């Protein structure tokens, strides 16, 4: 029997699982590789919901308005056809998830309930309590388990990707990966006619963030070092409301504000009364006052900047600290339990107060990377994505695809809340068919390729691993990481200043030198987490340099990238995508134009109602 | 702050079949500290109380918000997630052990794949026709969501089976978590079309009859899933199915 094609998908979150499902539905087998069992992927942390303009609330919402608001929310940096494809597909995606058994909250008539989220004035966000990401992840995991039982999926859990296999004689196309079994530390090769990275974000570069501890961006780093373009690295979303912690900054979902939560501080910073006894007129609801149109539901970049300003520049943080109130106490307990239960439990468990009785104390935290591996797309004649085009979601390395937070495609300079679950699933629905189309055009089956490139790649990665094990300097990798995280958090999040960025860039080079002097003090051949982390740290430093260089170069303010010295968006000079390319001396930057074929950039302001929807027509009722 | 240091006592093992040993550590007290931040402090300075520099402790973690289930371990004798185990609520020295019902990988890391195998056995999914556009699923009342959503929060963390006296090496019992998943999918309008197939997986060896009704599972479940209700409900459904087939 002739050898059959098979695909490799790295990453078991929403994007990787959806890609896998689409490939399996075509009868093509998949090797699915993940650092953790799929149910422990970072998608589980998404809380608030998934956007889809189903318009069952009788508000005149439509996918075109969703498109307008997403592009506007992203400050016009996103290529428009992929965004339009996503917003049009959204209602169908939510319907599919409903059929898969996701326990979405319901209306009295038994339909899906939708709530408000940032950057819009339509009830567009479907939700399952306040653990929507967890519920979507489980639903897709269950469908993949079904394919596993049918023999179409081979799972490799607790495996780490350590390299791509590129076939030099064949245009440098990607034909597989080298991966490491984290239990035994053995390295092995996995062949794939196409390879997909669905490896998520890079929050660990910022030390403490809302991300899971597995989100180091290491796979992004591997791809970048092997020739992939890294697009818009400087666009890092800072979520306005998180709970400070010693180990991480825990997300407090935007849905809290979508359900009516209000942000405030006492007007008098010396007011130390119990918040419940401070009368309304002595409270400063600064988002509502400054943005009367959208109030507490301004997009995340704006809310984070205002909270930062109130605490750091206006001296109004609670008790002089960097903290503001997120207040739900005016909402009934029954409504809170049913619609926000999961996040209230998190606050109760980790802080000890009941947010149904006491306003929560929150501060912004690094949350999401809008940038990521550059991927191509092919627009259709109706302004969305051409179905099954092999260009969609393919990186500049042939045969290598990227999908989910690891790509840069859908969110421009700032992501709207509840668009990430959507972009992961939509991306997977596009990426799977794109991989199949690409593989259909191949002349050979990867299973039959000579072993040369695979042996070389395995040999290279084995030697690198042995070199890490032999590191016997005086530095501790976790100590370097803590310094890296503190520095990035202080200087490369809400406000960016060129002087500070230059210092950070120099410090990163010093850290790369210090990295060489790490001591890997672990001689046990199993589950060597020191060796694994040391390897990830090297990649985090490489990516951090691209983030900082991209930020340093971009002398304007757009979405999440804000420089007080350059407070305006400068379209003539900067309406372009940053492309970072790896070189051993440091990142090399270039730029490419943004596809603005469907709606023209206009000034972004959330002061007035309806501003984000622009000219998009609301559907007739 | 009451004390400057946090004392920990950790059971270690280099791998399956290797001897276990106990090591003690002291780490600096920080505000808002949990067991995870203690283990992170040990990574930064893996020196025991006796002054010996050792390899850092291996443990599993991911989300740190008690939603992924990765960092489950036995803390002061109780199975739970390390992220939500706050230092100020724990007696010191804080004793950490790996879960005992699964093979040890290293130190506090165990191999929980048996639980994922159980999800395959009981067919824990909805049999959809495909991902093509077929519109929304059947309408459901909010009352149904109120029942199914809590069941659907199972992280497959292992707390219930760790505490279950009938789940061990010499018993084929599939565990409360898998039984509860059968209830979840059988409650769904489309899932109920295949309810019998799922119930059948729990009728024989390792099935519902192996539950000894100790009710430990519901006590330790971090997501407060009504596991005993699920066990009772599935038991009833199986009896009904058997009677019908007499």
Structural features, described:
The complex is a heterodimer of chains A (621) and B (246). Chain A folds into three domains: 7-235 and 370-448, FAD/NAD(P)-binding domain (3-Layer(bba) Sandwich), CATH 3.50.50; 239-366, Succinate dehydrogenase/fumarate reductase flavoprotein, catalytic domain (Flavocytochrome C3, Chain A, domain 1, Alpha-Beta Complex), CATH 3.90.700.10; 455-575, Methane Monooxygenase Hydroxylase, Chain G, domain 1. Chain A is 34% helix and 16% strand. Chain A is built from 15 helices and 21 strands. In chain A, the strands form five sheets. A six-stranded antiparallel sheet of chain A has the order 13-12-17-16-14-15. Chain A has a five-stranded parallel sheet with strand order 6-2-1-10-19. In chain A, strands 18-11-20-21 form a four-stranded antiparallel sheet. In chain A, a hairpin with a 6-residue loop joins strand 12 and strand 13. By secondary structure, chain B is an alpha+beta fold. Chain B folds into two domains: 5-110, Beta-grasp domain (Ubiquitin-like (UB roll)); 113-244, Alpha-helical ferredoxin (Fumarate Reductase Iron-sulfur Protein, Chain B, domain 2). Chain B has helices spanning 35-44, 113-121, 142-151, 159-163, 176-187, 195-201, 216-220, 227-244, and strands at residues 5-13, 20-28, 72-75, 78-81, 94-97, 104-106, 109-110. In chain B, the strands form two sheets. Chain B has a five-stranded mixed sheet with strand order 2-1-5-3-4. A two-stranded antiparallel ribbon of chain B has the order 6-7. In chain B, strand 3 (72-75) and strand 4 form a beta hairpin. The radius of gyration of chain B is 21 Å and the shape is elongated. Chains A and B meet through helix 1, helix 3, helix 4, strand 13 and helix 9 of A and helix 1, helix 2 and helix 3 of B.
Instruction: Record the strand order, biggest sheet of chain B.
Output: 2-1-5-3-4
* Total individual domains of chain A: 3
- Supply the helix-strand structural class of chain A: alpha+beta
CATH class of the largest domain in chain A: Alpha Beta
- Known CATH architecture of the largest domain in chain B: Orthogonal Bundle
Topology pattern of chain B, helix = H, strand = E? EEHEEEEEHHHHHHH
- The whole-number mean of residue pLDDT values of chain B reads 96
The two chains with the largest interface, and their residue counts, are: A-B, 71 and 71 residues
Task: Tell me about the largest β-sheet of chain A.
Answer: 6 strands, antiparallel
What are the low-pLDDT stretches of chain A, counting only 5+ consecutive residues below 50? none
Uncertain segments of chain B of ≥5 residues (pLDDT<50)?
none
The CATH superfamily of the largest domain in chain B appears as Alpha-helical ferredoxin
* Tally of individual domains of chain B: 2
Number of helices of chain A: 15
Percentage of β-strand residues of chain B: 5-15%
Q: Between the first and last Cα atoms of chain B, what is the distance in angstroms?
A: 67 Å
* CATH topology (fold) name of the largest domain in chain A: FAD/NAD(P)-binding domain
* Biggest sheet details of chain B: 5 strands, mixed
